[in-house]
Specification:
The protein has 13 helices and no strands. The protein has 426 residues and is an all-alpha fold. It has three domains: 15-139, no CATH class; 144-213; 232-425, Helix Hairpins, CATH 1.10.287. Helix 2 (27-37) runs antiparallel to helix 5 (120-138), helix 4 (75-109) packs antiparallel against helix 5 (120-138) and helix 10 (263-319) runs antiparallel to helix 11.
Length: 426
Amino acid sequence: MLKTKLTCALLLISTQTAYADWTDSLGDAWKSTKEISNGAYERSKEYSNTVLDKSKDYYDDITTTDTISLRDLTPQVIAEEKKQHIRTVWSEVLGDLDTALALNTKIDSAPDSRFFGDDKKSLNADQLDIFKTIESLLSSPAISKNRDVIDALKQRIEDKKDIIAGYMEKRIVADNKDRASYDDKIATLNDDISELSRRINDEKDKLQKRFQASGLLLSNDQVDILLSRVDADDIIKMSLVYDVLADITQQLMGLTKESNENIHQARKYYGMHVVLLKLVINMQDNYVKKLDEVYLPKIATIREETSRIQQESTELLSNETKKNRQQILRKNIEAQKLTIKVAKLYAEQLNQQKAKVEKARDLIISDYKVAKNTYDTVKISADLIRLMRTNRASFNALMNIQIPNIVPFENIAMQKKFEEMSSMIK
């Protein structure tokens, strides 16, 4: 089983190093795409499984190597990573787009529903399966790798802190010799934690560089805050896929131009571009749906439960006469107030982000309608290229529209509570 969620390619110094990080980049993406494909009609499912199995076999043969150092991660290296990414997934993406385009044509003429055979609902579901495959191919393994390393390093720090806590407990009843031994062990573990923290900062610096190369201009602190959000995966995936789609559109523009004397081929490549616009709309719809049906309801539940506990704590405090218990209850109430405050802030931020994505979705829907109308009208290739160029600019603008407003927390306690709440929501 592979380890991570997304699929792409990382180019380092040699071809072997370039392919290395792909081994750790498929994981749940392959699993979830195959699960979704199980519900598709037979031809679509057969195609999807063929592509996935072929790609999976390709990546299974890759040997894992160490990731590139922060010092060597130059803009040129990142640009080469992106080029290698497009080269590696191009044939699979082109095939998926062709299948999705064929489905789009069927959807237009299919009935809304019927007992036997394809209808709009079943064909749309089949097309969503293909979109899942395309998304998995377009996502960035380098960034996914950075995030996995950060999570692993954080877990190692927590493990070492647990060991220190155990040593501290044993140290209390130890004799002088054993106490000195525990002191040495604790000092060594603290040194290890410092080194792990330094490595985490290096990985965050790599993330910042890769984000910047994709148009996400974030400071180190903003990267930290973004990663603490429950919707970080969704935001990062949408933004980075848009960046790759701009390059894919450039490739399709070239193919359309080269097919100038064959309007059928030109129309086909333009149709693939139309499907890409529909894929973007689907990603945005899924994000808004997840906010409405998962994240925001869970935050509301946390606020309601915390308010109930706060009321209970207040009643206990009003009837408590012992000072030590009063002190504990007051601290509990303060913690509960902080939770309610952070939950309210969290909900506000997610609602603001929802509004941004909905605004971006409206823009893309407009682009899609015009592009689809142009495709149906069978315009000459020069007109198709002109419109594709406009849509490509839209992809670039999406990242600026949809990046959340990232503001610093008032204090460390609020930041920790925010991160705790993200874990609760997940």
